[in-house]
C-alpha cells in the first residue's frame, strides 16, 4: 500500500516542492549548529555580567562558581546518584504516560464508540492542570515514589493522546477511497495507512510529553524526595547555595535538550520517506 501511495511521480513532485520551499526561505534558513548560538551568547553575557559585577553572586552565581559547585557535588555529594534517581522517575512516568496515551488515542481514533467513551474525559482532564491534582494524589497514594510517577505519567498522557488522536482523524479520505478501489481490507488499511499516517502526530506529542514530564519531575521532586536533582535543589535552597541551585537547573536543561533531540532524531529516521521543512 505504501508503495502505491508513494509513486515515483509523487516523490519527484515532493522533491520539487521542497526545493521551492528552501529557495523561498533562503540558503541560510538552516544552520548546522544554529541551536548553540543562543546558549553560547547567553553564557557569554552571563560571564561578562558576573566578571564586571553587574550580576551579583547573591542573585546568580558566576559560571566558574557553578562549575566548582558541580565538581563538589559530583565528588562529595553523590550527584551521579541524584541524576540517576531523577532519570528513573521521569523514564518510568513518561513510559507509562506514552503507552496509556497512545492506546487511548488508538481506541478513540479508530472507533466512534471508543471516542464517545474516551475523548470526553480526556478533554475534561486537559482543562485541569495535572499539577493542581498533586494534593489529591498525595491523599490517595501517599507522598512517596508512587505519587511522583503517577503525576509524571498523567501529565505526559494528555499531549500524546491529543496529537496522536488528531493524526488518526486527519488521514486523507482519498486514501480510504484508494484502499477500497484496490481491495485492501480494513485491517491492512489501518496497519499500513492509518497508523503510519498518525506517526507524525505521535512524534509531535512526544516532544510536548517530554517537556511536560520534565516539568512534572521538577515539581514532584520538591515533595519529600530523598534523592534526585530536585532533592539537591531543595537542600541548596535551605542553605542559600545559589551555585548548587544553578547546577540543578542546568542538569534539568540538559535532560530536556537530550530528550527532545532524541525524539527529533527518531522522527527524522522514522519519517525519512516524507519530505518536510525539517528534512
From TrEMBL:
Keywords assigned by UniProt, alphabetized: Cell membrane, Membrane, Transmembrane, Transmembrane helix, Transport
One Pfam match: BPD_transp_1
Presence of the UniProt keyword Transmembrane in the record: yes
GO BP of this protein: transmembrane transport
Highest taxon in the source lineage: Bacteria
Record domain ABC transmembrane type-1: where: 79-263
Membrane topology: Multi-pass membrane protein
GO CC annotations, alphabetized: plasma membrane
Membrane-spanning intervals of the chain: 33-55, 90-114, 126-143, 149-168, 189-219, 239-259
Compartment list: Cell membrane
SUPFAM superfamilies from the UniProt entry: MetI-like (SSF161098)
DNA repair listed as a keyword: no
UniProt cross-references to PROSITE patterns, sorted A to Z: ABC_TM1 (PS50928)
Family assignment from sequence similarity: Belongs to the binding-protein-dependent transport system permease family.
Protein name: Sulfonate transport system permease protein
Species for this entry: Actinoplanes digitatis
